[in-house]
Pyridoxamine 5'-phosphate oxidase N-terminal domain-containing protein
Amino acid sequence: MAETVANSLNEQLFPLLQKERFVLLTTIDKVTGGPNTSAISWIYARNELTISFAVDNRSRIVENIKNNQFVTLTLIGAGSVYSIAGEATVEVEKMEDVPLKLAKISVQIKEVRDVMFYGSRISVEPQYEKTYNKQAAAKLDEQVMTALKKA
């Protein structure tokens, strides 16, 4: 099953990115020129070709993308692991209606690959929980996801 290649999200992957989700983001580090991987969760697929996500606007991620637009998102879901490569742009430096200083970044998808090793499948998807005030976390998550969904 490994190395199935497409140029957009399919009908299995698109719904997975309609809500907050654990995803790994790899950028090209501005200083070292090597890969830099971060875990993110505020992510939303606008359509099959565009994914938006939010990160702290002081983050290394923002500087890396301004320096080199190529990114990879690693999604674990639908029974496999997917590498979603594309070109990122900082769409908004500080998102409105969000109490934190978050940048909105959009990725134009160029390639989607199933990168799960041969003869296996993901049986349990990653899960996480917020370790701070659950009510505050839920309110912030709702604000950020609503802002991400705005055109």
Summary: The chain has one domain: 4-149. The radius of gyration is 15 Å. The first helix runs from residue 13 to 16. The first strand starts at residue 4 and ends at 6.
